[in-house]
Write a structure and sequence with these properties.
α1 (7-17) crosses α2. The protein is built from eleven helices and 13 strands. By secondary structure, the protein is α/β, with parallel strands linked by helices. Strands 3-4-2-1-13 form a five-stranded mixed beta sheet, with helices on one face. A four-stranded antiparallel beta sheet has the order 5-10-12-11.
Length: 361
């Protein structure tokens, strides 16, 4: 155990953590590091909650869970153990996780970390991230997590059309395994379930536009980059084009308004959607879902697969129930993910680390 973690490494861990996605890029997290306990605590920033669209803070927990997965990946990349406890203080529900940091018994050689820090998604990284050693055999959990590190910087949400190429079965199997490693299920939707979910997404988008409170909340988290330099929210350059057929699964952040000069283009006719579910539906399950989601997204990024989200029907309780698999009828929907091959999407802003990290003695 180190006597202290140097501030540069600590800041790097948190910078990686906050690269995670969150609903409307609200970034609803704070981190507190105690030097004496070598512990990073993840806290919910309830001032960044979305009371209209996320009254139970389910999506807030999912976003914070994604940040926690990134933190674990970064710790593994830096040769650190990260002993993680979810909801460590039952009397303080805003305390979402504690991560006690220490040096692994066998640290990764420096030259390997430097090579991975270059950000190249090599075939070796893909094999490692999928749980397979380049020479054959299984990897340790730390090795599998560390191999995901290059994807943290590369992963972005893409609200652009994808082409018709299918995600190969072997990649799909790796994504399913990645979610299961974090305690969630991940399944690609097929007919007729796919058509049902597509209809629910369109219904929910219509519900949102007809709800003034939700419309106002969404508008609150959009950013006009001609008049401001945002550190959070969804900037106008990330809205993506409008679907010429009005059937896109991505959330339209323009809402009932208009964005001059916005392109109208056709999106894929049959999007590849997957459903992330958990067996229960409590705060701890939402945190696990967030970690599973981010593990899937990072692994997809390493395999050249672009992603976006379709959360609209999950935000309406009556629609969320119908999202369940019609055959098995089990599991609670936590995220709908759209996958495919196309533009990776632009980088969206993040708050500076000094706004989200507090260091205590």
């Amino acid at each position: 155990m180190p006597r202290s973690l140097d501030d540069a490494t600590l800041t790097g861990l948190v910078a990686d953590a906050i690269a995670a996605p969150s609903m409307h890029n609200a970034q609803p997290w704070q981190f507190r590091y105690t030097r004496g306990g070598h512990t990073l605590t993840l806290l919910a920033d309830l001032d960044r909650a979305l009371p209209e669209e996320d009254p139970a803070t389910r999506a807030l927990h999912v976003g914070c869970g994604a940040a926690l997965l990134n933190l674990r990946v970064s710790a593994a990349h830096h040769g650190l153990e990260a002993v993680t406890t979810l909801l460590p203080e039952p009397a303080a529900p805003a305390v979402l996780a504690s991560v006690r940091l220490g040096v692994r018994a066998v640290a990764r050689p420096a030259h390997e970390n430097e090579a991975r820090a270059g950000g190249e998604a090599t075939a070796e990284n893909e094999a490692r991230a999928g749980g397979e050693a380049p020479t054959g055999g299984a990897l340790t959990e730390d090795e599998a997590l560390a191999a995901l590190h290059p994807a943290i910087e590369q992963r972005h949400t893409s609200r652009y059309p994808f082409d018709d190429a299918l995600v190969p079965e072997d990649v799909r199997a790796l994504l399913v395994a990645a979610a299961r490693a974090e305690g969630a299920d991940f399944s690609f939707l097929t007919s007729p379930h796919l058509e049902t979910v597509l209809g629910l997404i369109r219904d929910a988008e219509g519900y949102d536009r007809g709800d003034p409170g939700r419309e106002a909340e969404q508008h609150h988290w959009t950013r006009n980059t001609k008049t401001e330099a945002p550190v959070d929210g969804i900037p106008d350059y990330a809205f993506g084009p409008r679907d010429a057929q009005e059937q896109a699964t991505t959330r339209d952040f323009v809402g009932t308004g208009a964005l001059p000069g916005r392109a109208r283009v056709p999106f894929e006719k049959r999007p590849q959607l997957a459903l992330l579910t958990t067996s229960s539906d409590h705060s701890v399950d939402w945190l696990r879902a967030g970690q599973a989601l981010e593990r899937v997204l990072l692994l997809a990024t390493l395999h050249g697969v672009s992603t976006s989200f379709s959360t609209q029907p999950i935000e309406w309780p009556d629609l969320r129930w119908i999202l369940r698999d019609p055959v098995f009828g089990s599991g609670h929907a936590q995220m709908i993910i759209r996958l495919g091959y196309g533009p990776t999407g632009p980088r969206t802003p993040r708050r500076p680390t000094n706004q989200v990290l507090t260091i205590e003695p």
